[in-house]
Design goal:
about 120 residues, Arc Repressor Mutant, subunit A, two-stranded antiparallel sheet, globular
Length: about 120
């Protein structure tokens, strides 16, 4: 059975990749390393690279090749459309998820429809 934390983080993989790409151009392995640093969980290359290719195909990311030593590495960055997509994702999180996460983290009590005046 999968750990609940792993399941939760799996659902955040793509929004976090978008956010990381908005901060600076990155290549796939760099995303994997940074995601692990931030979350303690390793991204699978089999998720990262197809997602990056889809972002590029759909016009949400652009890519360019960079030579690093003897290797050529493909760097990805968000396009204007990608930045707009990230804004939509942030909006969803701000409206629908933020209160739940804050209460979860802070250990807030659930309200049961009773309000005191």
């Amino acid at each position: 059975m999968a750990k609940i934390g792993d399941v939760f983080l799996r659902s955040l993989e793509k929004p976090i990749i978008l956010w990381l790409l908005a901060r600076k151009p990155r290549y796939g392995y760099e995303l994997i390393v940074e995601f692990k640093r931030l979350t303690g969980r390793k991204l699978k290359p089999s998720m990262v690279y197809p997602f990056l290719h889809r972002l590029e195909e759909k016009g949400f990311a652009s890519a360019h090749w960079v030579t690093k030593g003897k290797r050529r590495i493909k760097h990805y960055s968000l396009t204007k459309n990608g930045e707009d997509l990230l804004k939509k994702v942030k909006s969803i999180f701000a409206k629908h998820v933020k209160e739940v996460l804050v209460n979860l983290i802070e250990g807030g009590k659930e309200k049961h429809g009773t309000e005191s005046s």
